[in-house]
Design brief:
Reversibly transfers an adenylyl group from ATP to 4'-phosphopantetheine, yielding dephospho-CoA (dPCoA) and pyrophosphate. The protein has 163 residues and is of the alpha/beta class. It has a single domain, classed as Rossmann fold. The chain is globular and about 45 Å long.
């Protein structure tokens, strides 16, 4: 497939775990594109709590029923994955101003590596703006209730992982 289709967006991340903020961003993106590929990075450097396969399965269950969404894992450079799926847009979420500098660097590098794809930033609804996967993991690890911040299947998986 030829890269650069502006009607296909890749939403990359580690998604360890997928949160309601991520789901909100997917729902915001769906009306803008013909297809949104939620792209789950293996990213062993981050030492994820869930394997790539587990994160893919959790995301598929949590995003089930949202039209035009596909979940795929990847173990290559994001630029290569974007080309592989033929996407013309890399979707990124911005929760706060503090995210901007890092996201700007990523967007600049991706523009260099895959110039046929544009980076688009979306913001989540205000009630999810403070939620991050790492915060959800930490609260869950210590027995805190994260049920309002994640899909029920993700909540069950977290409870199982950190019991």
């Amino acid at each position: 497939m030829k890269a650069g289709n502006p009607r296909i967006a890749v939403y990359p991340g580690t998604f360890d775990p997928l949160t309601n903020g991520h789901i909100d961003l997917v729902q915001r993106a769906v009306p803008l594109f013909d297809k949104v590929v939620v792209s789950i990075a293996e990213n062993p450097v981050k030492g994820p709590s869930f394997s790539l396969e587990e994160r893919i399965e959790l995301a598929k269950q949590a995003l089930e029923g949202i039209d035009k969404v596909e979940v795929q894992g990847y173990r290559v450079l994001l630029a290569d994955f974007v080309r592989e799926v033929g996407a013309g847009v890399i979707l990124r979420g911005l929760r706060a101003v503090s995210d901007f500098e890092y996201e700007f660097q990523l967007a600049s590098m991706n523009r260099h590596l895959v110039p046929e794809a544009e980076t688009l930033f979306l913001t989540p609804a205000e009630q999810w703006a403070f939620i991050s996967s790492s915060l959800v993991r930490e609260v869950s690890r210590f027995g805190g209730d994260v049920s309002e911040f994640v899909h029920p299947v993700v909540n069950a998986a977290l409870k199982q992982r950190f019991r």
